[in-house]
Write a structure and sequence with these properties.
The structure holds 2 protein chains of 2 kinds. Chain A is α+β, with helices and mostly antiparallel strands. Chain A has 12 helices and 23 strands. In chain A, the strands form 5 sheets. In chain A, strands 1, 2, 9, 10, 11, 12, 19 and 20 form an 8-stranded mixed β-sheet that branches. In chain A, strands 13, 15, 16, 17 and 18 form a 5-stranded antiparallel β-sheet that branches. The radius of gyration of chain A is 22 Å and the shape is globular. By secondary structure, chain B is α/β, with parallel strands linked by helices. Chain B has 3 domains: 185 residues, FAD/NAD(P)-binding domain (3-Layer(bba) Sandwich); 133 residues, FAD/NAD(P)-binding domain (3-Layer(bba) Sandwich); 83 residues, no CATH class. Chain B contains 9 helices and 29 strands. In chain B, a hairpin with a 4-residue loop joins strand 6 and strand 7. The longest helix of chain B has 21 residues. The chains are: A alpha+beta, B alpha/beta. At the A-B interface, strand 18, helix 9, helix 12 and strand 23 of A face strand 6, strand 7, strand 8, helix 3 and helix 4 of B. The complex binds flavin-adenine dinucleotide (2 copies). One flavin-adenine dinucleotide (FAD) binds next to helix 1, strand 13, strand 18 and helix 8 of chain A.
């Protein structure tokens, strides 16, 4: 049986951030993820907004970790080589009622300690973002708000953790947990693993995992949200993040510019079943209406994709994160209920978790040789022609364009497969390299990606999945002997 | 990085690019074609059905056969063909940057012909709600898996869209032993040619459901069914008419869109009605020396028309390369159109000799005639007949009319 000091269940942004933080210390750590890819749960299906922290209720864990996380991002993005765009944001008010709300939000932001918040009005709004609706009268401006690609961040965390010795077991759903030998025996398809400590970061399934360990302590409900992606040319461009006056449950329909330059619109909020990643007509309509209200030039006909995810909400926990040790099972720790802004908070969550673990006696001794930095993969599209030429001379695979919409080469795809932990699926390649993410949505390149995956992984095309088990793209050869 | 110079650089090696290159070469130009795939032929290579060449070669050919005729002709010329080479950038001063396994090349061109073809509309664009699972793919991608890759992309299909591509795929799937549960079309009329409805659906017993669309995709990992609903006159789904159709694949054949990213980089202006460039009767865009033809200009249903149009573009490009500009003896005539005419190509005429105008109607019209006006003067009223949105139409304006046209004409359709 493989022995670890600590096992993290769940390879979303939360699990990966914690893994990376713990990889500083002399611990044998493993991450177990049910899906074949990192970040394939809620982490792949959100806005990627790094909120600046005026929104959570003062005094909550969320308020503390959101603010801290946001301020950690600029430095982290340099260390780990992922894209972080400090876009700034405005919450837009159209009338006096809205102004009253903005004032309240402003005071709440001050109470949370958010720096450089400003209540502004009139001309200043349009100086900051000329594409804002001309009806806008007031705004709460927050310069620290940023954007990331959430799965890029999770992948960066995971690669850096792996470089520092954390082991990743993918396609490894945990099906049983029992207490044994001063620790836990955890069952995954590959077999049984032993660990002294368990960290439950299983997203919407964190309560199910807790129950596997014999701790029936909390319940999670899934708050579903739809999102829209628009073409890079969609009437607005390079938009500063615009929020409406928030509703009770969410921050309302937000319009933002992804780090790759696509306009995103998110998100609706409805309680649905866990793992319901379907898009709903009502949600989509609500988003379009909300987006056009903030940025009237946005052309809804330029939507290239809709997607959806589920926020993990711990019941009776006042919409706060649920980060604490189990009351029932010693050495089991929850990093659960990581609803929005879980992405923004993740670096701070990781630091907070490390502190908590230390407090409960987990030995955290610093390693001698800790690698704090990760080298980002090559982004061919961003290179100058001379750099492109040089790269192709070194490796001709970079001269084979696979995805024309997003300018992704075979070299980048092969690299994505062979990184640790590497891409295994069509969607994994898409999230790591953007191949298939553009306006044709893989119409021209999906088959090429499929065959590269099969070749590099030494398997048959029908073994390649879109993402989860049972999601194959092709079934068999049509005719033998061809 | 290597630099090369050409009179004419053609981007895209489908039927449009090949015809443009050949005709430019015949005019004496030094020509290059850049094609991102490993072979010339474009989308034709995967269209293994017959039905190509009836107009141009007076013969019924398959797509690859049609393409091969041009590939063979090109082989006898000195046109330089860059295969497996993707154009990454095009500047207004006509520098074409491409990359291939040998590195990055900059081709300095006197004239450029855009012939990049089109892409298919996707699930995201038509916003079909429902689960996010494998098994939803465009007809062209399915066609590639089946006809080129020898892979089976599904067992039981629902096809959305009754355009020719959807119809041809319905037959293709049936021939390969797969089941097509039905073809669904949101409009109250089929979008494909009559011959294809007959040969591809009726002959195979595949039902066609009009005024019906897919309203939800169902399936956790792979499609297990789709929900279809009937739609009202405004094309909105009618609640209560939902039906669940079991299938493992949803094939989308819901339209093509010219692939114009490169044009934007070069400052070429796009016609929002076609998503292709705005061109004049020489097929020249607003950027002098940049021409456009084939599916990147507007979506064609027949490769033969692509070839004819592209030969004109190639000849114009060669002339531009030779003379540094195209003759502008006349003040241009702006060509406008009104509904139910959807668009015209060109939108500007710089000659008074004769000018063909291509267009499509937006809905089926029975017994309508084309009217050409300049201000309040009616210059031309054609004989009435029926028109269909699925068929690209054309009308040639003769010298006598162009001379009377002033600086603007409007084309409309009116009931006889
Ligand atoms: C619509 C929407 C919009 C959002 N927008 C934003 C935003 O703009 N900014 C922001 O900061 N936050 C946002 N969020 C919140 C953010 O997405 C989440 O807080 C974050 O992704 C949570 O990450 P996680 O790692 O905790 O969960 P997940 O990413 O869900 O990871 C949990 C992982 O555990 C795995 N798992 C589950 N059960 C098991 C098992 N038994 N064995 C092994 N593995 C298991 C799952 O497969 C999954 O990969 C949004 C959320 C939604 C839904
Ligand atoms: C499924 C289907 C069935 C059809 N059936 C018929 C039929 O029965 N009869 C008929 O007459 N017509 C038919 N057609 C229509 C006909 O095939 C098309 O109108 C014609 O192929 C369009 O030619 P094109 O050269 O404009 O575009 P394409 O054939 O699409 O060629 C464009 C080329 O440009 C290349 N390219 C694009 N961008 C770049 C870049 N950046 N760098 C380098 N190269 C690039 C592409 O790889 C491609 O090879 C059918 C079309 C389809 C899709």
């Amino acid at each position: 049986m493989q022995q670890y000091d600590l096992i993290i269940i769940g390879g979303g942004i939360t699990g990966c951030a914690v893994a990376r933080e713990l990889s500083r210390y002399r611990l044998r750590v493993a991450v177990l993820e049910a899906m074949p890819e990192i970040g394939a749960g809620t982490t792949k299906a959100n806005g990627g907004l790094v909120h600046s922290g005026y929104d959570p209720k003062p005094g909550t864990l969320k308020a503390l970790l959101n603010l801290k996380g946001c301020l950690m991002y600029p430095m982290l993005s340099r260390d780990l080589g992922f894209r972080f765009h400090k876009t700034g944001s405005m919450v837009i008010g159209f009338n006096e009622d809205d102004l009253a709300y903005l004032e309240k939000l402003y005071r709440q932001g001050l109470e949370n300690g958010v720096p450089n918040l400003e209540l502004i009005r009139g001309k200043r709004i349009f100086e900051l973002e000329p594409q804002t609706s001309p009806d806008a009268k007031y705004a709460l401006y927050s310069p620290h708000t940023g954007m990331v690609d959430p799965f890029e961040v999770a992948i960066a965390f995971s690669e850096n953790a792996a470089a520092n010795g954390v082991e990743f077991h993918l396609s490894s759903p945990v099906s049983a947990i029992r207490e044994e030998d001063n620790g836990f025996v955890v069952t995954i398809p590959e077999g049984e693993l032993h660990a002294t400590y368990l960290v439950d970061a299983a997203g919407v399934h964190a309560d199910d995992v807790a129950r596997l360990a014999g701790a029936d302590e909390f319940n999670i409900i899934a708050r579903h949200g739809d999102l829209l992606v628009l073409d890079k040319h969609c009437g607005v461009q390079n938009l500063m993040t615009l929020y409406p006056i928030p509703s009770k449950e969410t921050k309302g329909v937000v319009v933002m510019n992804s780090v790759s330059g696509n306009t995103l619109v998110g998100s609706s909020a409805e309680i649905k079943e866990k793992d319901d990643n379907a898009s709903y007509q009502e949600g989509i309509q609500q988003l379009i209406a909300g987006a056009v209200k903030l940025a009237p030039n946005l052309n809804p006909r330029k939507i290239i994709r809709t997607f959806a995810g589920c926020r993990a909400v711990v019941e009776n926990n006042h919409n706060d994160f649920y980060i604490r040790p189990s009351k029932k099972v010693p050495n089991l720790f929850y990093v659960a209920g990581i609803q929005s802004p879980g992405v923004a908070s993740s670096p701070a969550i990781a630091a907070y978790v490390a502190q908590m673990l230390r407090g409960y006696g987990v030995p955290l001794e610093e390693k001698e040789h800790y690698v704090a930095e990760r080298k980002a993969p090559v982004d061919f599209s961003e290179l100058s022609p001379t750099e492109k030429d040089r790269l192709i001379q070194k490796n001709p695979a970079y001269g084979k364009l696979v995805c024309s919409c997003e300018c992704v080469t075979e070299g980048e795809i092969v690299d994505a497969i062979h990184r640790v932990p590497g891409a295994r699926t069509i969607d994994g390649i898409k999230r790591r390299t953007r191949a298939g993410m553009g306006r044709c949505q893989g119409g021209f390149c999906q088959h090429k990606v499929l065959f590269i995956l099969a070749r590099e992984l030494h398997c048959r095309p029908e073994d390649i999945l879109m993402e989860g088990k049972g999601s194959q793209i092709v079934f068999s050869k049509l005719k033998e002997g061809r | 990085m290597k630099q090369l110079s050409f009179d004419v650089v053609v981007i895209g090696g489908g039927p449009a690019g090949m015809a443009a290159a050949l005709s430019a070469q015949e005019q004496g130009a030094k020509v290059a074609i850049v094609e991102r795939n490993a072979q010339l032929g474009g989308i034709l290579l995967q269209c293994i059905h017959s039905g190509f060449g009836l107009k141009y070669f007076k013969q019924e050919l398959t797509g690859p056969e049609y393409a091969q005729r041009f590939i063979d002709r090109l082989a006898k010329t000195d046109v330089q063909v860059f295969l497996s080479s993707a154009v990454l950038n095009l500047t207004p001063d006509k520098k074409v940057t491409l990359s291939n396994e040998n590195g990055v090349f900059v081709l300095d061109a006197k004239a450029v012909v855009l012939a990049m073809g089109c892409r298919e509309r996707t699930r995201g664009e038509i916003k079909i709600p429902g689960d996010r699972c494998a098994g939803v793919l465009t007809a062209g991608l399915a066609q590639h898996y089946i006809n080129i890759d020898n892979e089976c992309p599904g067992h039981r299909f629902v096809i959305l869209g009754s355009g020719d591509i959807g119809l041809i795929m319905a037959r293709r799937l049936s021939l390969e032993g797969m089941k097509v549960a039905g073809v669904y079309e949101i409009m109250p009329y089929p979008n494909g040619l009559y011959r294809n409805i007959k040969n591809c659906l009726e002959d195979f017993g595949i039902p066609l459901h009009l005024s019906t669309t897919v309203t939800r995709v169902i399936g956790k990992r792979r499609v297990t069914a789709v929900e279809v609903s009937r739609v009202d006159e405004k094309l909105h789904p009618i609640p209560g008419t939902e039906k669940v159709i079991p299938c493992d694949t949803l094939l989308l054949s819901v339209g093509l869109i010219p692939e114009n990213e490169l044009c934007l980089k070069a400052g070429v202006k796009i016609n929002p009605r076609t998503n292709g460039a705005l061109v004049d009767n020489d097929l020249q865009t607003n950027v002098p020396g940049i021409f456009s033809c084939g599916n990147v200009l507007h979506v064609h249903d027949l490769a033969d028309n692509v070839t004819a149009e592209s030969e004109r573009a190639g000849a114009s490009a060669a002339r531009f390369a030779r003379e540094g500009k195209l003759p502008a003896e006349w003040t241009p005539i702006t060509v406008k159109c009104e509904m139910p005419m959807g668009y015209t190509v060109p939108t500007c005429i710089r000659t008074r000799k004769r000018a063909p105008i291509f267009f499509r109607v937006r809905r089926p019209l029975e017994n309508y005639r084309i009217k050409v006006q300049s201000g309040d003067d009616v210059l031309l009223l054609c004989k009435p007949r029926d028109y269909k949105p699925s068929i690209m139409e054309n009308i040639t304006l003769p010298e006598s009319i162009l001379k009377k046209a002033g600086n603007e004409i409007t084309l409309t359709m009116e009931p006889a």
